[in-house]
User: Which sequence fits this backbone?
């Protein structure tokens, strides 16, 4: 306890001294509690309101503060102020999380891990809200609520639902790449310190001349990658469900500060028109052979929060929090996310969520937004409208990101599903994973898929077969399915495969 807080008289929230905090005011015989005990009522009423909605996804997580330091000159690509000079340091916050589980769920669950960073720059807050995987399950944000529902509890049984899980994924073949990563041991990382982070999305960087490039962020753990096997993760879920939270907190407490090295991949707009994969499709990576990692800086986490609720639970990250020099790309998932985060923050934390100290910029801010619940801003005596002739804050066109040339019809354009959507998964299985990784991947998948209906197993196994025949064959064998049938289904179009496995 802080020295200055010791030996003080207990008070109400209004600062009035309290005479007794152990006995409520009642009649004597029998004891009926009286409304006149305003201290007791205030205490209980506040307690009744302690919980706020947990995040609809990424509810379980922990975080810490630290700094980002630029190590490489990237000013020819971006005019972002916090990246403007080698050696420049910017205060930051990181929050790591699992995705599907509730706030009390186990840290070692098989799940992607959230990797959210907030940079308190001198030109406003920049958020990089990524994951520990470079790709995602879907590539159009309109599918996100359905996808998440299949990862949550069945609304009737209140239990995880393997049918829903595999039904949706097998009807959404573009998920195959992320599914393969998730069911490898990368789906159960050893805490938050031993994993990489990725923006996954493509973003625009533009320089002082208004020239832009497309980039992807990579954050490589300086602690080295470590994963748990399924057995280790399952055991820890019982014996130490807060493993990752404890590991991060304790390492910082003892001065062993975790660090990540930051890199980007860069693609020019011209290259983006001709790349073999759609560079804005989040189910695909850009090969590092084509677009090597360029070092940018590193970040170090060296300070635990003083109050988890205030600084981590109330932290509000948004992939739309940009600073000059960084902007969105035409990635359909990203575009939907730009809406969803501040929308959920207004619901979860209230309209003035950005006035909370952890979310407020550390640079001056000026605009004409006013009032609402819990407002503490006071812009008076400035005018509360724009334009005005009282020298109130005004926009500056020099901060405009480059204009994008947009053409064609506004319509519900679907991503066509093609063989190209299985190529990177086939390479991951065939060329990247070791025999040990492959065996764990197959066992982890079979262990999970065995709980789904057989027709759904067949449909999903056919997708693995399409990615790599050995992959599909081993899954089929592990589940006791006919390999011939799986091969036959793999050779069909997705539409025919769905019809053939309808019942
Ligand atoms: C959290 C929506 C895709 C990473 C959240 C939250 C929502 C959400 C509503 C809760 C935020 C809060 O309560 O503060 C969506 C939607 C998506 C999407 C609609 C697709 C259109 C993604 C992708 C990634 C990602 C592709 C990673 C590349 C995260 C992270 C958090 C989060 C890291 C936790 C942030 C924190 O620590 O507070 N998402 N998400 N999400 N999402 Fe997404």
Assistant:
């Amino acid at each position: 306890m802080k020295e200055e807080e010791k030996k003080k008289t207990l008070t109400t929230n209004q600062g009035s001294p309290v005479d007794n905090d152990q006995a409520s005011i009642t009649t004597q015989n029998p004891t009926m509690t009286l409304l006149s005990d305003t201290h007791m009522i205030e205490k209980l009423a506040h307690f009744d309101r302690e919980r706020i909605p947990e995040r609809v996804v990424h509810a379980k997580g922990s975080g810490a503060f630290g700094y980002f330091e630029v190590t490489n000159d990237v000013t020819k690509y971006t005019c972002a102020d916090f990246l403007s000079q080698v050696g420049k340091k910017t205060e930051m916050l990181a929050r790591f999380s699992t995705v599907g589980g509730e706030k009390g769920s186990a840290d070692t669950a098989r799940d992607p891990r959230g990797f959210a960073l907030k940079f308190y720059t001198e030109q406003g807050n920049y958020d990089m809200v990524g994951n520990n995987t470079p790709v995602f399950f879907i590539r159009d944000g309109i599918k996100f609520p359905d996808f998440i529902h299949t990862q949550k509890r069945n609304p009737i049984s209140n239990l995880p639902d393997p049918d829903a899980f595999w039904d949706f994924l097998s009807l959404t073949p573009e998920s195959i790449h992320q599914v393969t990563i998730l069911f490898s041991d990368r789906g159960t990382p050893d805490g938050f310190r031993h994993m990489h982070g990725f923006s996954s999305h493509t973003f625009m960087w533009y320089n002082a001349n208004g020239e832009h490039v497309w980039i992807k962020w990579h954050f490589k753990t300086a602690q080295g990658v470590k994963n748990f096997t399924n057995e280790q993760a399952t055991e820890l879920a019982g014996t130490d469900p807060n493993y990752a939270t404890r590991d991060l907190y304790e390492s910082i407490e003892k001065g062993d500060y975790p660090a990540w090295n930051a890199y980007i991949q860069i693609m020019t707009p011209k290259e983006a028109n001709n790349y073999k994969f759609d560079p804005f499709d989040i189910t695909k990576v850009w090969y590092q052979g084509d677009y090597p990692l360029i070092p940018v800086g590193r970040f170090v986490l060296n300070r635990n929060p003083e109050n988890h609720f205030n600084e981590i639970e109330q932290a509000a990250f948004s992939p739309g929090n940009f600073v000059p020099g960084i902007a969105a790309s035409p990635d359909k998932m990203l575009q939907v996310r730009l809406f969803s985060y501040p929308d959920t923050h207004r619901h979860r934390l209230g309209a003035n969520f950005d006035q909370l100290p952890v979310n407020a910029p550390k640079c001056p801010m000026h605009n004409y937004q006013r009032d609402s619940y819990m407002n503490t801003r006071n812009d008076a005596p400035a005018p509360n409208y724009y334009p005005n002739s009282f020298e109130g804050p005004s926009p500056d066109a020099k901060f405009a990101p480059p204009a994008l040339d947009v053409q064609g019809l506004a319509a519900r354009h679907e991503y066509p599903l093609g063989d190209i959507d299985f190529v990177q998964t086939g390479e991951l299985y065939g060329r990247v994973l070791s025999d040990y990784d492959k065996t764990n991947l197959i066992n982890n998948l079979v262990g999970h898929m065995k709980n789904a209906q057989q027709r759904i197993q067949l449909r999903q196994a056919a997708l693995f077969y399409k990615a790599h025949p050995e992959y599909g064959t081993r899954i089929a064998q592990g589940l006791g399915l006919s390999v011939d049938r799986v091969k036959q289904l793999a050779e069909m179009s997705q539409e025919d495969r769905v019809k053939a496995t309808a019942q």
Observations:
- The mean pLDDT is 97.
